[in-house]
Design brief:
This protein is mostly beta strands and 207 residues long. The chain has a domain at 60-197. 0% of the residues lie in helices and 59% in strands. It contains no helices and 15 strands. A hairpin with a 5-residue loop joins strand 12 (163-164) and strand 13 (170-176). The radius of gyration is 19 Å and the shape is globular.
């Protein structure tokens, strides 16, 4: 929005619930995001960019594709470039849905915190090795006005690499292999990631 200080974005998703696998994939919830560049930029050693998001219940909560209610989410990310080859990212967030809904159309308020940390090793300018640790505490609606809470802790090692094109397009594939610790020990997964980034116009930071 005129500079890197103020950024708007839209997040849309298609997902499939493991509990309702027979229903197939479908549209998930949508988020409208505002991010403020409090400190730093892509070239700074320290960057802080708090975010607040409006959560729109476009997913079908009866099929496990959404929360079933409007909500707010906030995140405080901090990035530190320690040297030319090592970067760490820290993130703390909170999601609030005052009238979440379960498949039986029962409603309750949920407040879910999360904390994440990742370490990125810049092996080469276009190849990174990384490891992410994420803890979440999730409340699910169990009855009208009641919730049940569970927590998870995942460690996710992975790699990503980039292809840069002369027209400004950057294509970044990645793969990670998360595994659970503590209450969810024994759980394993795979994450495949593909980012296509191209600016509509050059972005310049102005005070």
């Amino acid at each position: 929005m005129g500079s890197l200080k103020h950024q708007l974005s839209l997040t849309m998703s298609v997902n499939r619930s493991g509990i309702y696998a027979s229903s197939g994939p479908g549209w998930g919830d949508t988020s409208l995001n505002y991010r403020y560049q409090l400190a730093g930029s892509g070239e700074a050693r320290l960057a802080v960019a708090p975010r607040i998001s409006l959560l729109v219940p476009t997913g079908d909560s009866t099929l496990g594709r959404g929360s079933g209610g409007w909500g707010l989410q906030t995140n405080l990310p901090i990035s530190i470039q320690h040297n030319a080859h090592l970067v760490t990212h820290w993130n703390a967030g909170l999601t609030w849905v005052p009238a979440a809904q379960n498949p039986r159309h029962e409603h309750a308020a949920v407040l879910n915190p999360s904390v994440g940390q990742s370490t990125v090793w810049l092996v080469k300018p276009r190849f990174n090795a990384l490891c992410e640790i994420v803890w979440t505490s999730n409340a699910a609606v169990s009855a009208r006005g009641r919730t049940e809470r569970s927590s998870s802790l995942y460690v996710s090692p992975g790699i990503r690499w980039a292809y840069n094109f002369r027209n400004g397009l950057q294509v970044v594939p990645g793969i990670a292999l998360p595994f659970g610790i503590g209450e969810i020990a024994g759980q394993h997964g795979a994450i495949f990631y593909l980012s296509l980034e191209h600016p509509f116009r050059p972005a310049h930071s102005r005070r």
